[in-house]
Amino acid sequence: MPREVGIVGIGHTSFGKWNRSFVELCCTAAVEALEDAGICRNSGKVDQLLLSTMGAQTLNHQSGVASALADTLNLRPAMAETVENGPASGASAVKLAYTEIASGFCDVVLVIGAEMMRTVNSKRCTDLVATLLHPEVEYPYGLTLPAMAGLFTRLCMEQYGVTEEDLARVAIKNHQHAIHNPLAQFHSELIFEKISGEGAKNPYVAEPLHLYDVCPISDGAVALVLCAMDVADHFAKRPVRIRGIGQATDTHTVAEREAPTELLAVRLAAQKAYAMSGLTPGDIDVAELHDAFVILEIVESEEVGFFPRGQGHLAVRRGETKIGGRIPVNTSGGLKAKGHPLGATGVSQIHELVVQLRGEAGERQVKGAKVGLAINFGGFGNNVVATVLTREEL
Amino acid sequence: MPREVGIVGIGHTSFGKWNRSFVELCCTAAVEALEDAGICRNSGKVDQLLLSTMGAQTLNHQSGVASALADTLNLRPAMAETVENGPASGASAVKLAYTEIASGFCDVVLVIGAEMMRTVNSKRCTDLVATLLHPEVEYPYGLTLPAMAGLFTRLCMEQYGVTEEDLARVAIKNHQHAIHNPLAQFHSELIFEKISGEGAKNPYVAEPLHLYDVCPISDGAVALVLCAMDVADHFAKRPVRIRGIGQATDTHTVAEREAPTELLAVRLAAQKAYAMSGLTPGDIDVAELHDAFVILEIVESEEVGFFPRGQGHLAVRRGETKIGGRIPVNTSGGLKAKGHPLGATGVSQIHELVVQLRGEAGERQVKGAKVGLAINFGGFGNNVVATVLTREEL
Predict the structure, then answer these.
(1) How far is CA B308 from CA A261, A316, B168, in A?
(2) What DSSP line would sit under A108-123, residue for residue?
(3) What is d(CA A80, CA A52) in angstroms, rounded to the nearest whole number?
(4) What average pLDDT does this structure show over B94-111?
(5) By three-state DSSP, how is residue B34 classified?
(6) How far are the Cα atoms of A157, A202, A227, A300, B334 from residue A153, in angstroms, in the given order?
(7) What is the mean pLDDT of residues A305-316?
(8) How does DSSP assign B67-94, residue by residue?
(9) Is pLDDT of A329 > 70?
(10) Which of A148, B5, B167, B347 is least surrounded, with the fewest CB atoms within 10 Å of its CB?
(11) Contact, A8 vs A225, CB < 8 A?
(12) Phi, psi at A310, each rounded to 5°
């Protein structure tokens, strides 16, 4: 039997703009997580550091950063690696940390997710993300992720009756949630009339996607301390348990999928995570779904089993995914309003679930939350990781 | 107790120059490994693909390549990630694959290590590797890895009496071994008089390091199929067992080390791998030591316990590290003569040990080899992974 694994420390910088170095960004979140767990920085208690970053080499001109962090954080001779899985790098790093502990190879692993995108021209960020697309049949033709999301959104509109107003409703909800998250990039309320319909100040980015349907470019870092449940009482905080992890890949190109509006990898990843946890969609109290483009939140909410296919947008209209609704989604503000520093995002989603399951979410607290689900989405749905967390006692 | 883990399939492209795409490079090695293991490509038997690459994003302008490989190899919905740990990425990927299986989370993991460096100007490769150095106190001053290795070599000469002729002897030995490795980049015999002393055609690269003391720039890919020993008889090949893995980090900058000619991370990593395996330096029959610069092979051979400190070069003079000697080192030709495609190297070292432990190394076979050790070296010794492999029956 694998060992049980929990999360006993969390740290999170403000998302937005960072003015110091990439290493300092990572260390800021890490020190907060180590302090939260009650680990003295030179206690030697950390066996492994896993850094999740997608673009440090391209955007910040640094390699082997994980080794630099182990030294800077005074964790030597702790092991250190970097994990990359596009925008799903964060949940992948948590998964690998989980297996290192579950196998008995490590007791304590520090996961850091970080990205620093705003030091370079936004076109370089768009290009970096576009290199996730197929290098022969997509990228060379100038396809970008927003363009792909525009095509995907158009298909969903035709097939299920999703409207531009539904997209605006998701953005408004997530901005509303972010107002109560001090670490979010945006704290501005969006007004329906100002972003939707005639006279709205919300230009198309990739028709039918408007500016406010798309996540921003962000700097930020998040850290988690994971440990074996059998050593968890050495730490200051009560653990939140990792109960299920599922992951699945899909075709590299969307064009090759039998049903291009379905996100098969989301469905398979969630099913695997539910099976491992022994829980079902009905058990989930709070979810972070990867809303790099707001249409993704809608379709993911169907694929993970919260709503029937084609009805996610109807649930948004009814307010079911708001805080206070049946199944609150993206209480942190989501990628849309909290921000989307690529390698940090998957770790940030799990951070938000830990905050919720600890009951420390303040004004955005989902009352009595016991079980959380995160969906971290790589490529255009070609590599998806689902994570189920529960309060310790469950 | 963690599950035991073995290697049941291996694949390896020729190192040198690759003329097709990065994905094709990876798939060439992967298909060979899957076929070696007897896995049909659409059998669904592979749970996870781990890609080790250091520079695919910078050198080949591709991200999320692991997902693309899962699709191209028809392994969907297998999980997929990329692991980066500088030039030690390969052994790091094998380590993480090990823990995924040992924990019971996976049964079968495909590890692919690959780098394609010769598509770009060699100055870009040198710069990529230099980004491993400290971004504030080393890199901005123009320090490169060869320059660092030159300084390190000079110190070893002053402290232990290593000579330029000793360096040449290591290069000659590794080139001699590579003649019998059809996959090596170089098959040319080096003649002592032609590379050493007056009239030699062997210019300084970073004094006292000559051209032939330094590894080349290479393209290449290597793949391994790892599985739980409890399912190993589903596969065509008898497994080689992973018996010990150790890893350690050291200070980011060499200047901060108390003893700058010692490679503390090599020593600690090897000690941990020995402890996990229950074996000692005297049990090792064959070793692959990371000779990006030949001085490293000498110092590593001391740190892993083959020879007393300061006497590695004397062992080279006595021929103890040749095939047929007491402890043959770098039977594959090493990074020096086999080539050094960064992310592939650690996987290639383990590939060579598997070939030796299977008894399939032909003219470079170490007779009766039962136990092998690999040292994969990241940064300038700031992150080192040691792996101990044994024949199945041990």
Answers:
(1) 64, 70, 21
(2) EEEEEEEEE-TTS-HH
(3) 11
(4) 98
(5) helix
(6) 6, 17, 40, 13, 52
(7) 98
(8) HHHHHHTT-TT-EEEEEEBTBTHHHHHH
(9) yes
(10) A148
(11) yes
(12) 80, 5
* Closest CB to A67 among B63, B131, B383: B383
H-type alpha helices, A139-263: 145-160, 164-178, 192-195
pLDDT exceeds 70 at position A42: no
- Is A347:A90 a contact under the CB 8 Å cutoff? yes
Q: Tell me, what amino acid is at A34?
A: L
Confidence of residue A358 (pLDDT cuts 50, 70, 90): very high
Compute the average pLDDT of residues A141-155: 96
Surface-to-core class of residue A40, CB atoms within 10 Å of its CB (0-12 exposed, 13-18 middle, 19+ buried): exposed
Gyration radius of chain A's alpha carbons: 19
pLDDT of residue B55: 94
Task: Measure the CA–CA gap between B189 and B187, rounded to whole angstroms.
Answer: 7
Residue written as token pair 């870092």: A221
Chain A: nearest CA to B13, how far in angstroms? 22
- For residue A182, give every residue at least 6 positions away whose Cβ sits within 8 Å of its Cβ, in sequence order, or none: A14
Residues of chain B contacting residue A63, judged by C-beta atoms under 8 Å apart: 54-55, 84, 86, 128-129, 131-132
Q: Are A171 and A291 in contact (CB under 8 A)?
A: no
Looking at CA atoms only, how far is residue B144 from chain A in angstroms?
A: 13
Give the pLDDT confidence score for residue B42 in this predicted structure: 62
pLDDT in tens, B347-374: 999 999 999 999 999 999 999 999 999 9
Q: Is the dihedral of CA B315, B316, B318, B321 positive or negative?
A: positive
pLDDT for position B393: 77
Structure tokens of A361?
């979410």
| Residue A3 pLDDT | 95
List, as own/partner pairs, every contact residues B197-203 make where C-beta atoms lie below 8 angstroms and the sequence separation is at least 24, other chains included: B197/B165, B202/B168
Q: Which residues numbered 238-267 in B keep a CB inside 8 Å of some CB on A?
A: 245, 247-252, 264-265
What span, in angstroms and rounded, lies between the C-alpha atoms of A71 and B45?
39
Other residues' Cβ atoms within 10 Å of the Cβ of residue A324: 9
Q: Say what the pLDDT of residue A41 is.
A: 63
Residue B33: left if φ>0, alpha if ψ -120 to 50, beta else—which one?
A: alpha
Q: Which DSSP state fits B45?
A: -
Q: How far is CA A238 from the centre of its chain?
A: 23
pLDDT of residue A393: 77
How far is residue B151 CA from its own chain's centroid? 23
Find, among A81, A89, A82, the residue nearest to A132 by Cα.
A89
The span from the first CA to the last CA of chain B, in angstroms, equals 18
Q: Closest to B77 (Cβ–Cβ): which among A102, A132, A265?
A: A265
Q: With contacts defined as CB-CB under 8 Å, which chain B residues touch A382?
A: 64, 67-68, 71
Alpha helix (H) residue ranges in B73-180 = 89-102, 122-130, 145-160, 164-178
Nearest CA in chain A to B129: A63
To 10 degrees, the CA torsion angle through B208, B213, B217, B218?
-170
Q: Which of B79, B136, B272, B345 to mutate to test the interface with A (most CBs of A within 10 A)?
A: B79
Asked if the Cβ–Cβ distance from A104 to B104 is below 8 Å, we say no
Global confidence as pTM: 0.98
DSSP A232: G
| Alpha-carbon gap, residue A136 to A241, rounded angstroms | 42
Q: Does B86 touch chain A (CB under 8 A)?
A: yes
Q: Which residue of A has its CA nearest to B22?
A: A135
Chain A residues in contact with B384 by the CB 8 A cut-off are none
Q: What is the DSSP letter of A214?
A: B
Q: Which of residues 320-339 of A touch B (CB under 8 A)?
A: none
A202 reaches B (C-beta below 8 A): no
A299 touches chain B (CB under 8 A): no
